[in-house]
Amino acid sequence: MTAPVNPKKLIKGGLHDWEVVIGMEIHAQVTSRSKLFSGAATAFGAEPNAHVSLVDAAMPGMLPVINEECVAQAVRTGLGLKARINLRSVFDRKNYFYPDLPQGYQISQYKDPIVGEGEVLVDLPEGESITVGIERLHLEQDAGKSLHDQSPTQSFVDLNRSGVALMEIVSRPDLRSSEEARAYVTKLRTILRYLGTCDGDMEKGNLRADVNVSVRRPGEPLGTRCEIKNVNSIRFIGQAIETEARRQIAILEDGGRIGQETRLFDPGKGETRSMRSKEEAHDYRYFPDPDLLPLEFDQAFVDGLAAGLPELPDAKKARFVSDFGLSPYDAGVLVAERASADYYEAVAKGRDGKLAANWVINELFGRLNKEGKGIEETPVSAAQLGAIVDLIVEGTISGKIAKDLFEIVWSEGGDPRAVVEERGMKQVTDTGAIEAAVDAIIAGNPDKVAQAKEKPTLLGWFVGQTMKATGGKANPAAVNALLKAKLGIE
Amino acid sequence: MSALNELTLAEARDGLKARSFSARELTQAHVDAIAEARALNAYLVETPERALAMADASDARLAAGEGGPLEGLPLGIKDLFCTEGVATTAASRILEGFTPHYESRVSENLWRDGAVMLGKLNLDEFAMGSSNETSAYGDVISPWRRNGSDAAIVPGGSSGGSAAAVAARLCLGATATDTGGSIRQPAAFTGTVGIKPTYGRCSRWGIVAFASSLDQAGPIARTVRDSAILLGSMAGHDPRDTTSVDIAVPDFEAAVSRGVKGLTIGIPREYRVEGMPAEIQALWDRGAEWLKAAGATIREISLPHTKLALPAYYIVAPAEASSNLARYDGVRYGLRVPGKDIVSMYENTRAAGFGREVKRRIMIGTYVLSAGYYDAYYVRAQKIRTLIKRDFETAYAEGVDAILTPATPSAAFGIGEKASADPVEMYLNDVFTVTVNMAGLPGIAMPAGLDAQGLPLGLQLIGRPFDEETLFAAGQVIEEAAGVLARPKVWWA
Amino acid sequence: MSVDAQTVRRIAHLARIAVSEEEVAPLQGELNAILAFVEQLGAVDVTGVEPMTSVTPMRMKRREDAITEGDRAADIVANAPETEDGYFLVPKVVE
Ligand SMILES: [Mg+2]
Ligand SMILES: [Zn+2]
């Protein structure tokens, strides 16, 4: 990397400043009904060994047959990462013994992956953005699951995951802080979810990261890296990097050396530790799987998939900025989830885009967050929120009333226009009624009226009183104008 | 009428159709013969009840005028084919106690066509061997003996149980597999006919894998016609095996009587190996004469990379085997020998479960794939494989229809005679057969004479990809020209 | 190339086959005999030759994404040396 070092991203050690260099290998479970090489289901949460075929259990004489949808999903993902699609790729065997690896090898792609170099544009909070290089994406089988806490002497093995398709997405070591790393995973997850190629559910382990961390003095060559295996939340990715970088810095500043190794992040203890089981030098003896021919397809297959791709977040964001006049920040928030973006678009269609964005981001997202709900669970539909926005723009209700209305629709439902009608929430624009209220307040508070001439900020108090008297329904602009005239404020 | 188990498969089929005897009678004759021939150790598992029940079902279908192409014909199954509900061992201790809940595609095809299962046949452990001396369940003894000797002779391997059982009339035909010569070499050693079809002709699904890119199933039978009938049932596309080919299975039996008029038969000069016994050379010359007499043109050809096939095979096959046999780890089926932790459980299980030859091959395979050696060994061997295949393509492109070679460099040897410390001596048995596997071609071995000591000798014909028909046609010519050969005297009953 | 005793032990461990001390020397001899036999391949000029990937030239067939197997846990574990509640049991694995 020749990019200039950003001093803000350096970590202060006891003696020096250090630059952390991060590369990631993301394992993303391919969204498919059945496994990569067998017809067993991929669904989560089945009874032990229920979603296991003879192939997945590596019974003698069983042979893999590739799932065409998994191939298509990998190609779609490659296209979404603006990557080179390899029309010919090869499945290799990675040989090692482990109880949750029934064949004694994992079918993976080593020398010739299905997808080559690509890139991901990552937005950072301060409006900055970086491009992270993708080295490759390959298809491979997931392993089964071993439970170690069922018995003091034995591990329990469940092969339900065994053979589920994974995409391993390998980034270049282009990340320079835990924040960048988190933003990268967040963005990658967004892209995968848009594409529908991985649901990104990290709690279920459907997206997990191996994080390669090294540190160096700025300008120096890359340091020795340690790989932190299987980190399964974005927050933990950040913590693991911070922890590991500090561990390495402490060793180096002590005059020590970093040994290349595989480590595990323990969020409870806030430390990374060496993985004993992976300590042994591995010799995976990769070779092309003789049960599988090379995977070949033509450009027309790729073009067909490209034509069916949805609009991706970067394009959508740009369009929201240009079509709806949104700030890049707001547009970014809205496109983070495809469902949110779709919701927003439904609200914004034929309406003021900015006002719609305010309502979606501030009111709706705020409320959803408070309840810990996702956009899919919103009780207020895009049509309902759109109606609320319409009522504001027409002047039928004030912004303040609109918030009450939103609350009612949120908890009780209903057509917002009908609710406004039934509950008499309409804004009062009849100046006669407002004038009566204003007059009453002026008559009742002669001292305040006298002060107001010198202290125009008192206007706010009068506005408040008027709104209170009218049950919040008075048109604020009308109230303001009347008060100013009657109090003689400029 | 001679005993029913003396019939050829074609004769038995025709006799059943004519209702000259019942499938039950035919099966019972084999069940009895098997019971008397345990000294040969050809069957690892006998399934007489199942056989008789299947025979009764066949009789019912035959009576109803239904019946498939193999209706009521009793066969033996090499114990490398998984058979539902019947123990499958690959002749290894590591599969002790394993009973598949599935049926191999090839055996399933046979049952679909009405065949009757007599039991599971012995073999070299995991099909690794050329003498059937590596089976964990004891050597198979050939029904053949040298003139005036009662020394035990090997039936060849790895399909030694299949070859011995067919030669000794313990079944009408048998399934077998061939990775480097395991159908053709035992066929040659026992005076039977064995064909390894083109790679992809038969499904490998449900056959315990040895070396995936080389393994092919095929039949061993007593005549060329019988082998054609059996292959017709065994072959066929299987969507569960990506390497099986989606092309129609020809009428192999119809090809048997086609003759060789107008065909060009190649005689590869590189098969004239140093130290080849004179009687093998004579046999080979005679074979060429027979084909010529039947109207074929004989042409000397060159397959320059022939001598590289065996060493390349001993890289490719062990490499694939080392990986294919990793699944035998004591976790999901078969033998488990406890250890202090998971690693020692693996190591103890595999040390106790695999025999010497299998361990040797796993270790060679592990070595040639390991870091730093992969390119020098494995990749190089696969390049040489390309060269070997190219040799054949060139010959076929120049108008050769099939290639005639000896099947083996010698007749069968005695049990224990090749138990030297140098495993390569045994490997040399496959020097004429292994090229065919390396190139994925079809090859047939059929008896062509006896050696001075009265043991059978075989010739091999190698065909174009998916042209097994020419092999049956030419094989039939040789079979007829060779005439009725002596057969093993029954010493075991 | 030939293997020494240490390599024999390393290979055996990679292949997860316990080898006693007495077995090392004979194995070493046998493996070296095989390696000596395959040595002749080293002399062949293979420049420009593609390694064989599939002996029968064909396109790899693919399956459609349908659930066609599963729900036979009892069969899957039926042959296992040790099972409990539908799981395979192995000596405890320490991570
Ligand atoms: Mg990795
Ligand atoms: Zn991976």
UniProtKB/TrEMBL annotation, chain A:
Keywords: ATP-binding, Ligase, Nucleotide-binding, Protein biosynthesis. Residues 342-487 form the Asn/Gln amidotransferase domain. InterPro entries: Asn/Gln-tRNA_amidoTrfase_suB/E (IPR017959), Asn/Gln-tRNA_Trfase_suB/E_cat (IPR006075), Asn/Gln_amidotransferase (IPR018027), Asn/Gln_tRNA_amidoTrase-B-like (IPR003789), GatB (IPR004413), GatB_C_1 (IPR042114), GatB_Yqey_C_2 (IPR023168), Gln-tRNA_amidoTrfase_suB_CS (IPR017958). Its EC number is 6.3.5.-. The keyword Nucleotidyltransferase does not apply. Transmembrane segments: none annotated. It catalyses: L-aspartyl-tRNA(Asn) + L-glutamine + ATP + H2O = L-asparaginyl-tRNA(Asn) + L-glutamate + ADP + phosphate + 2 H(+); L-glutamyl-tRNA(Gln) + L-glutamine + ATP + H2O = L-glutaminyl-tRNA(Gln) + L-glutamate + ADP + phosphate + H(+). SMART domains: GatB_Yqey. PANTHER family: GLUTAMYL-TRNA GLN AMIDOTRANSFERASE SUBUNIT B MITOCHONDRIAL AND PROKARYOTIC PET112-RELATED (PTHR11659), GLUTAMYL-TRNA(GLN) AMIDOTRANSFERASE SUBUNIT B, MITOCHONDRIAL (PTHR11659:SF0). Belongs to the GatB/GatE family. GatB subfamily. Allows the formation of correctly charged Asn-tRNA(Asn) or Gln-tRNA(Gln) through the transamidation of misacylated Asp-tRNA(Asn) or Glu-tRNA(Gln) in organisms which lack either or both of asparaginyl-tRNA or glutaminyl-tRNA synthetases. The reaction takes place in the presence of glutamine and ATP through an activated phospho-Asp-tRNA(Asn) or phospho-Glu-tRNA(Gln). Heterotrimer of A, B and C subunits. This is Aspartyl/glutamyl-tRNA(Asn/Gln) amidotransferase subunit B.
From TrEMBL, chain B:
Residues 25-471 form the Amidase domain. It catalyses: L-glutamyl-tRNA(Gln) + L-glutamine + ATP + H2O = L-glutaminyl-tRNA(Gln) + L-glutamate + ADP + phosphate + H(+). It holds the Pfam family Amidase. The active site is at 78 (charge relay system), 158 (charge relay system), 182 (acyl-ester intermediate). Keywords: ATP-binding, Ligase, Nucleotide-binding, Protein biosynthesis. It is an enzyme of class 6 (ligase). Its EC number is 6.3.5.7. It comes from the Bacteria. PROSITE patterns: AMIDASES (PS00571). Belongs to the amidase family. GatA subfamily. Heterotrimer of A, B and C subunits. Hydrolyzes indole-3-acetamide (IAM) into indole-3-acetic acid (IAA). Allows the formation of correctly charged Gln-tRNA(Gln) through the transamidation of misacylated Glu-tRNA(Gln) in organisms which lack glutaminyl-tRNA synthetase. The reaction takes place in the presence of glutamine and ATP through an activated gamma-phospho-Glu-tRNA(Gln). PANTHER family: GLUTAMYL-TRNA(GLN) AMIDOTRANSFERASE SUBUNIT A (PTHR11895:SF151), TRANSAMIDASE (PTHR11895). NCBIfam families: gatA. This is Glutamyl-tRNA(Gln) amidotransferase subunit A.
TrEMBL record, chain C:
Transmembrane segments: none annotated. Keywords: ATP-binding, Ligase, Nucleotide-binding, Protein biosynthesis. Pfam families: GatC. It catalyses: L-glutamyl-tRNA(Gln) + L-glutamine + ATP + H2O = L-glutaminyl-tRNA(Gln) + L-glutamate + ADP + phosphate + H(+); L-aspartyl-tRNA(Asn) + L-glutamine + ATP + H2O = L-asparaginyl-tRNA(Asn) + L-glutamate + ADP + phosphate + 2 H(+). SUPFAM superfamilies: Glu-tRNAGln amidotransferase C subunit (SSF141000). Coiled coil: none annotated. Its EC number is 6.3.5.-. It is an enzyme of class 6 (ligase). InterPro entries: Asp/Glu-ADT_sf_sub_c, GatC. The keyword Mitochondrion does not apply. Heterotrimer of A, B and C subunits. Allows the formation of correctly charged Asn-tRNA(Asn) or Gln-tRNA(Gln) through the transamidation of misacylated Asp-tRNA(Asn) or Glu-tRNA(Gln) in organisms which lack either or both of asparaginyl-tRNA or glutaminyl-tRNA synthetases. The reaction takes place in the presence of glutamine and ATP through an activated phospho-Asp-tRNA(Asn) or phospho-Glu-tRNA(Gln). Belongs to the GatC family. PANTHER family: GLUTAMYL-TRNA(GLN) AMIDOTRANSFERASE SUBUNIT C, MITOCHONDRIAL. This is Aspartyl/glutamyl-tRNA(Asn/Gln) amidotransferase subunit C.
